[in-house]
Amino acid sequence: MGLFSFFRKKREPAQPAFTERRLLPRWAICAPAKIKLKGSNTYVPCEVRDLNMKGLSLATSEKIPEGYLSFQLYFNEKYFFDVETAIVWHKKEEDDKHIYGMRFTRLRDQDKEKLFVMMKENFPGHLWKSL
Fold it and tell me: I need a labelling partner for 7 at 20 to 30 A (CA). Which of 15, 53, 113, 118 fits?
């Protein structure tokens, strides 16, 4: 220990990269989907990265208007959901993709049931990991 060791920068303990703080963890599915905003006739292709009964995270190449959104979420012709969401966070990746974290402000009970059935049929391994 020398005279100048006092001025050396102390090493900080390594912090975990991500700590899940949600009470209901999301299912990481990375599934292709499309959304149709209320009042629009066009579909916007996207990828649903994760979701649960409280919200979802999706990636799209187009910018989505901020604030509360009402849209239809299509996974295929069999599964579609009418949802209202609030955008909680937004970030832009290097490949010009916009990533959105959304919280459901309205999700009907029948859509919750369809969501559970869709997860059970198409992503059975993901569903039981968090339950």
Answer: 15
The reported pTM is 0.78
Distance separating the N- and C-terminal Cα atoms of the chain: 53
Q: Give per-residue pLDDT as tens, 30-68.
A: 999 999 999 899 999 999 999 999 999 999 999 998 888
Per residue in 33-59, is it b (16+ CB within 10 Å) or e — as a string?
A: bbbbeeeeeeebebbbbbbbeebbbbb
- CA separation for the pair 72, 10 (Å, rounded): 52
Name which CATH class applies to 24-130.
mainly beta
